[in-house]
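Encode chain A's predicted structure.
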Amino acid sequence: MEPFHLFLLAVGILNFAGGVLSVASWGFVRRKYEKTPDGRKDYRVSVIVPSRGEIDVKAMENQDYEDYEIIVVVDEEEEKREVERRTGEKTRVIISEKYPGCSGKNSALLTGIKHASGDVFLFADDDILPHEKWISHMVSSMDEVSTTYRWYFSPPMLCVWNAAVAAVMFYPRFNFAWGGSTAIKREVFEKYDIENIWKRELVDDLTLTKVMKENGVKIKFVPQAMVESMPEENIFSWMNREFAWLRYYFPSLWAIALFFNAGMRISNIAGAIYMFIDPLVGTLLLSSLLFDFVRGWQEYATYVHLMEYPKHRFLHPLYHFFLRPVASFIIFYNMISSAFIRKINWKGREYS
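Encoded structure for chain A:
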């Protein structure tokens, strides 16, 4: 057998073994997160939401948690008046102070913290539409830091892509404090001096993640608290930007992910070609992609089971089954594209 043929066979076997491990381990992962959070619910919670004025606070105000406040931080007086017309008694709207060394979002978060009275800070994006148990799940799950992730109910490709990315959050070694919904105890925030760190950084969530992981602080992922998000307008640009931030703050992790992702996708393409030469080797090379069909079904079943939204709101499982392999190639494209991004447009501002 020729060396090149042996090499492809070895790569194919690795692909197959990785696919089996991925599919087989998911059952253990799902069972680990099935228990409903039942920790303390007596913390005073400050929900801090940076906004450009386009926010629907009704879902945040309609929570089954007792002791909490909502602080919406906007840039201008006109935005403040507009948001105040739509808020209830739990919500205060304030104008952001400007910190020259950081992003607008970090400035808004830091301003909100100055006005917060809570024992727990719950940082949230203004485009989420949380269910009524959102705060309860976030707080009752936490030891020091808890986080969750977004969910899109449409369009189908964005939904399946997001489900694939969110699957990483189930693995503590690779999860991160998502800026759209992360809770942290005030004492932990102050202990690690996050306020002063944010004053010189562009991104809130990956910076917080880096500090927590460097100090051995566990970030608890709470799938029961996953929140609906409004669909993005420029989807591919937004996807690429997400991975660009990862490359900036965690270059080693990004490089490792790119290496393995590129290896699988290139071997998949080689497998499709090699099917005509040696069907066994071709199938093995394609196996990681074939296992993606199964992973799509597994991910769908897990999210429907753990999330608080009614089943009829989710896509039909066949979307996840058939689009999951496509999502893997899109993620590969996102990672390649992020390598060439030097400037990022975010919330109407440009960062480089």
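The chain has 13 helices and twelve strands.
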